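To assess whether the prediction recovers the assembly geometry, we first specified each molecular entity separately, as shown.
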Amino acid sequence: QKEVEQNSGPLSVPEGAIASLNCTYSDRVSQSFFWYRQYSGKSPELIMSIYSNGDKEDGRFTAQLNKASQYVSLLIRDSQPSDSATYLCAVNIYGGYNKLIFGAGTRLAVHP
Amino acid sequence: AAGVIQSPRHLIKEKRETATLKCYPIPRHDTVYWYQQGPGQDPQFLISFYEKMQSDKGSIPDRFSAQQFSDYHSELNMSSLELGDSALYFCASSGGGLAKNIQYFGAGTRLSVL
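The predicted structure of the complete assembly is given in tokenized form:
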């Protein structure tokens, strides 16, 4: 079992809809959680970071963290075709200057 | 704003050759991380350096070595290249302050081993 699990998709949503991406992690001591967006052949681009339980909003993006359930999600409101990409969930288990463990990524397709 | 700079962007090598990848972190960032991403795979952590000392080691083959220099740039040296080493290699950096654990990625080096 991977330490960070994501549904590989593809997740297909119409333009203007809400896209919901989910991620679970196995290590209870995990401290920091990140969502990266990656276009094909490009580098991961940070979308959101979240460290404490609850919701964190930034523009059209909302990250949700539930440490008791070991679950983190990303909501994208008013989805645009330009949001079509692979979304990588990443966990920093120990905090500080430590490696990221990535999920396999969820491919999102927003169709006009 | 300055980003993480990687060079070269593309590299083609033959089996058993050597390769050197370079990474220049964001100014004032003191930690560098290297990741390998195979086709259709998620990035896998290789190695990291904090203040010029190795801070963590992941699934890095013994054929690979890396170091961080006094100006904080890092180099990943790869020897006896194999076909399976063909991948995207990303460098990321992070700095101090409240955002010390946020890693910013460079554009990557695409290595093709023929």
